[in-house]
Amino acid sequence: MQPNAYSRPDDRGLLQASLRHLSGRLRPAVLFAGLASGERLQLTDFLGTATSSLHKVVVVPGAGLGGRVFTQRRPFLVEDYIESEGITHEYDLAVRRERLTSMAAVPVVVKGRSRAVLYVASRASTALGESAVGEAVEAAVEIAHELRVRDEVDRRVSIIDTARAEPALALDQSWLEHVREAHAELRSLAGTVSDPDLARQLDVIGSHLAPPSRDGVHPTARLARRELDVLAQVALGCSYQETGERLGLKAVTVKSYLQNAMVKLSAHNRLEAVSAARRMGLIP
Predict the structure, then answer these.
(1) Bridge-based pairing state of the strands 103-110 and 58-59
(2) For residue range 169-199, what is the model confidence (pLDDT) as tens digits?
(3) Buried b (16+ CB within 10 A) or exposed e, 232-260
(4) Which residues contact 18 (CB under 8 A, 6 or more apart)?
(5) Rounded to an integer, what is the distance from CA 101 to the centroid of its chain?
(6) CA neighbours closer than 13 Å in the CB half-sphere of residue 277
(7) Which of 7, 206, 255, 279 is the most buried (most CB within 10 A)?
(8) Is the pLDDT of residue 129 over 60?
(9) What is the predicted pLDDT for the residue at 22?
(10) How many Å apart are CA 168 and CA 175, to the nearest integer?
(11) Residue 26 burial (10 A CB sphere; 0-12, 13-18, 19+)
(12) Measured between alpha carbons, how far is 77 from 106 in angstroms, rounded to an integer?
């Protein structure tokens, strides 16, 4: 089996892109964020800060605004950070040095666990409004979605690594079905990620899960990406409706892609199409 050619992107890139987007929407807010490191939160990325006072802050669960949000897994807004009775004050010195007043923090929650926190702060005398919190919540939801996808890719790629380490498993029928599910899921994930480089990596990984063509049969059909996506789902026994839900397509569109694939594969029905695609090594 070929190497999987997958390298998970740095998750900090998601925070940095999100802060840049929020900066354009919430000028002149001060923005910063951090990723979870075990049970703590390391602040890593900043926009609009005037000093380095926040740059080495490590937030512990329950401490300060970020620690509260990290633990409770829900957003929180304080109108005056220093005077707020709703938080503890371990990080007041860093906040004072930045002259920050009102501040909101929003957790990035994936499967019930806080993975990061986004902060929006102001130096103005007027407090941040609910609209600023709403913008940060939307950004956090997008980051959480991308992290879920990356986590799932990691899980699926582990199947490839296991197969390389234990090739005898590939002969087991139940393992083969597991590989087929992984292949189909990777193809569907490739259509949901916003990072084009990651999407290309997923396509490459999916192709590595497909076996060599059987009996010297070379793939004569050139299926479009969506045709192959649909065929991979159909090979698992998915209906048009189920395939559409997995790929974000309408059932009628799924049927159209499958019919195009059948023509290219000289197949009269979906079973023949799946069989032909497997013989040619297009799908596992």
Answers:
(1) unpaired
(2) 555 566 667 677 777 777 777 777 777 777 7
(3) bbbbbebebeebbebbebeeebbebbbee
(4) 33, 118, 139, 140, 142, 143
(5) 33
(6) 30
(7) 206
(8) yes
(9) 95
(10) 10
(11) buried
(12) 9
Distance CA 49, CA 64 (A): 18
DSSP annotation string for the chain: -------PPPTHHHHHHHHHHHHHHSTT-EEEEEEEETTEEEEEEEES-SSSTTTT-EEPTTSHHHHHHHHHTS-EEESSTTT-SSS--TTHHHHHHTT--SEEEEEEEETTEEEEEEEEE--SSSPPPHHHHHHHHHHHHHHHHHHHHHHHHHHHHHHHHHHHH-GGGGGSHHHHHHHHHHHHHHHHHHTT-S-HHHHHHHHHHHHHHSPPPGGG--------HHHHHHHHHHTTT--HHHHHHHHT--HHHHHHHHHHHHHHTT-SSHHHHHHHHHHTTS--
Please state the pTM of the whole predicted model: 0.66
Cα separation, 169 vs 156, in Å, equals 16
- The two tokens of residue 147 are 């992290």
pLDDT in tens, 24-65: 989 889 999 999 988 899 999 999 999 999 998 999 999 999
What phi, psi does 274 have (nearest 5°)? -65, -45
Tell me the residue type at 85.
E
State which amino acid sits at residue 273.
A
Give the whole-number percent of the chain exceeding pLDDT 70: 85
The structure tokens listed for 14 are 């998601």
Q: What is the pLDDT of residues 37-48, one digit of tens each?
A: 888 999 999 999
Q: What percent of the chain has pLDDT over 90?
A: 47
